[in-house]
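2024-03-11 09:14:02 INFO worker-7 job=invfold-0412 stage=load source=structure_tokens
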């Protein structure tokens, strides 16, 4: 199958949002919209979107959230409700500009939480939810993992890794992530704050060696579901299953979405 890519800047009242669509020629099938992680962007999905598009025979769409990648700077007002804000405030104009009525929400890490929030808030339009290494609450392993990453980024040259993809927004991105998750005010957060319930088919993927979250996270995410719920727990896998075990992850997603919409 030939997949073509289409890059667009989507104008919104908060600034231009960069998006990329991997087109398969199967426009009648519900596309998959990707939500990136706390330090991520379109480019950091690497070859996963194209491979996913080929195997599922569906268009795949990714965008850089405001403040990330090639999108405009975040307009401010960042708070502990940033996940809900993405679903209710920043996603709608992107969704409208993409001219997509129905979608499958797929997110990695915090993007998985955001995808769950989309599924919860737009149940008539979100046909399915797929989370990869998403967190459901703040546990000691989460905090320890973030502190280790904070220490690593303090090493000379490490921040340049983020600047390669985010430019002068890199430092804001790093500290927005660290300060939010390590703050005392965020310690009581749970995914139910962002996604009280999910009525669409739900697939939760999680590595058993995930350095940011134990197996309790996919279990709690699965408990949100009131429809068909599936879990894929991967041995010997850490926080990036779609990069560590891509073939299994992509094939599991294909089977899941085909069962929903052949």
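2024-03-11 09:14:09 INFO worker-7 stage=emit residues=262
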């Amino acid at each position: 199958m030939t997949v073509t890519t289409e890059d667009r800047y989507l104008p919104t009242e908060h600034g231009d949002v960069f998006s990329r669509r991997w087109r398969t020629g199967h426009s009648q099938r519900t596309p998959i919209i990707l939500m990136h992680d706390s330090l991520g962007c379109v480019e950091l999905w690497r070859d996963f979107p194209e491979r996913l598009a080929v195997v599922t025979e569906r268009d795949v769409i990714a965008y850089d959230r405001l403040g990330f990648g090639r999108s405009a700077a975040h307009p401010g007002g960042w708070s502990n409700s940033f996940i809900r804000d993405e679903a209710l405030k920043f996603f709608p104009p992107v969704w409208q500009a993409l001219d997509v009525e129905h979608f499958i929400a797929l997110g990695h890490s915090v993007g998985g939480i955001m995808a769950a929030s989309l599924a919860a808030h737009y149940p008539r339009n979100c046909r399915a939810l797929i989370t990869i290494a998403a967190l459901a609450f703040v546990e000691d392993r989460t905090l320890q993992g973030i502190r280790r990453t904070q220490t690593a980024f303090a090493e000379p040259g490490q921040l340049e890794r983020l600047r390669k993809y985010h430019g002068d927004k890199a430092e804001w991105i790093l500290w927005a992530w660290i300060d939010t998750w390590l703050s005392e005010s965020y310690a009581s957060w749970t995914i139910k704050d962002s996604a009280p319930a999910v009525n669409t088919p739900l697939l939760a993927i999680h590595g058993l060696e995930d350095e940011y979250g134990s197996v309790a996270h996919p279990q709690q995410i699965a408990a949100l579901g009131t429809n068909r719920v599936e879990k894929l727990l991967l041995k010997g896998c850490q926080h990036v299953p779609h990069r560590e075990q891509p073939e299994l992850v992509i094939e599991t997603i294909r089977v899941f979405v085909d069962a929903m919409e052949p």
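2024-03-11 09:14:09 INFO worker-7 stage=report msg="The chain has one domain: 4-138+190-260."
2024-03-11 09:14:10 INFO worker-7 job finished
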